Amino acid sequence: MENDVLKGLRAVVLQRISPKNEERDHLKEITELLVKKVELIACSMGLDDVSASLVGSAARNTWISGTHDLDIFIMFPENASREELEKNGLTIARKIAEESEFFEERYAEHPYINMRYRGFDVDIVPCFRVQSAACIRSAVDRTPFHNEFVKRNILGLEPDVLLLKQFMKGAGVYGSELRTQGFSGYLTELLVIKYGSFENVIRSACGWQPGTYIDLNAHGTTQHAEPLVVVDPTDPKRNVAAALSLDKFCMFIDPCREFLLSPTLDFFFPGSDTSVTDSELLQRLRSRGTAFIAITFKTPDVVEDVLYPQLYKMELAVVALLEEHEFKVLNKGSWSGQKTVILLELMSATLPALRKHRGPPVWVHKHAETFKAKYVNAENVFAFYIENGTYVAEIPRKYSDACSLLKERLTSCSMGKQVSSSVKSGFELLHNSEIYSIQDMNFKLFLMNWPRI
């Protein structure tokens, strides 16, 4: 990698993704306002031992320009009960949310509020103020410790974190939510702390393989089975990379190797060909010579980390149903907006009207005679013969069309509570060109990238 080329790239990318002073000042202003509101409301409720704190990338100066996300934690004393935390935490959060443009109550391990507030996407999350990450009472209690560790160790490396995050976004591997199964923000920060620069992370990743183990504080106490293991420096029992799938692990390694050979801006800002027309996109997919079926239904009212595991479960169940009836599925994927789409790419959506039903070997006398008696003169049998020593009856296929099979049997598939309820309330099957009736631009982008998901 040429140093001059790399320096030039760094400068150009950082110019585009680094927050400007005006943006930083606005974030600071809104943060201070929200923290003050939390503490004033808590004080008015007689909760003098409750405080508020900004955590996450906004607090660590590792946020990319335009990503206006704030995580405000309401810190309750360690001896507070779970009931007090949930009740009082939500009361405080709801009072603040009354001034927002939009808000909704969400539930992770315990309830919290997500709101749109003066241009920011804000999570107001109650947590316990515990003495160490080893004493956490809920999963979110670790976050303040992550905050402090990164702030102590990241000084001067913030631009490298921004570069790594943008590179991962370009590769489609940034985000640890179950929809993406990629690298979290905290994980990118730890990788930069470990290797010392963006470039060193890229170089090191070229040699990664499943089982790669990173332990910043040399705890060396816990075994994990995931492709990448990064021991949480604040909680040695936890793998920070636990959410990273094998495919996303490899989808990071591959562009790292390409980048070393020829570093360009495209790795950070890959072009999205949004100018492609419906007819051009249709022709692109038709050229594959396969069949597409989309199952569409109303998106359940649940957070993505609840929705996507159910969609993946549904995908597997639908593929199993199709392959049980001899339809070959090449690719599958999920997309969700106002509607949810399970997209299936099949070798063919139709099969011959008959199928071979194999019986026992001819020499297995009793079973062979029973099989022959049932099929040899049956009216609906196309042919009866011996092949490779066994009786074969060519019988009518129950489902020769994949859409017919799905129409009749889809609701019997295992797919999770909320998704199952939505599907049972009504679904639509779209075949090939019918899929283009879905006009959402994000869905079109999903199709343009197919089968990369």
Overview of this structure, please?
The chain has 453 residues and is α+β, with helices and mostly antiparallel strands. It is built from 15 helices and 15 strands. It has helices spanning 3-17, 21-44, 57-60, 82-97, 143-153, 158-171, 185-195, 198-205, 246-261, 278-286, 304-324, 365-375, 402-409, 417-424, 441-448; strands spanning 51-55, 69-77, 102-107, 111-117, 120-129, 212-214, 228-232, 235-239, 291-298, 329-336, 339-346, 354-361, 383-387, 390-396, 427-431. The protein has a five-stranded mixed beta sheet with strand order 1-2-5-4-3, with helices on both faces. β3 and β4 (111-117) form a beta hairpin. α2 packs across α4 (82-97). The longest helix is centred in the first third of the chain and has 24 residues, at 21-44. It is elongated and about 85 Å long. It starts with a helix and ends in a 5-residue tail after the last helix. 31% of the residues are buried.
Choose one word for the global shape: elongated
**Largest sheet, strands/sense/barrel:** 5 strands, mixed
Q: What sequence of helices (H) and strands (E) makes up the elements?
A: HHEHEHEEEHHHHEEEHHEHEEEHEEHHEH
Number of helices: 15
Overall SS class = alpha+beta
Order of strands, widest sheet: 1-2-5-4-3
- Indicate the radius of gyration in whole angstroms: 28 Å
Given as residue ranges, the uncertain stretches (5+ residues, pLDDT < 50) are: none
Rounded mean pLDDT is 93
| End-to-end C-alpha gap | 30 Å
Helix content: 40-55%
Instruction: Tell me the β content.
Output: 15-25%
User: How many strand elements?
Assistant: 15
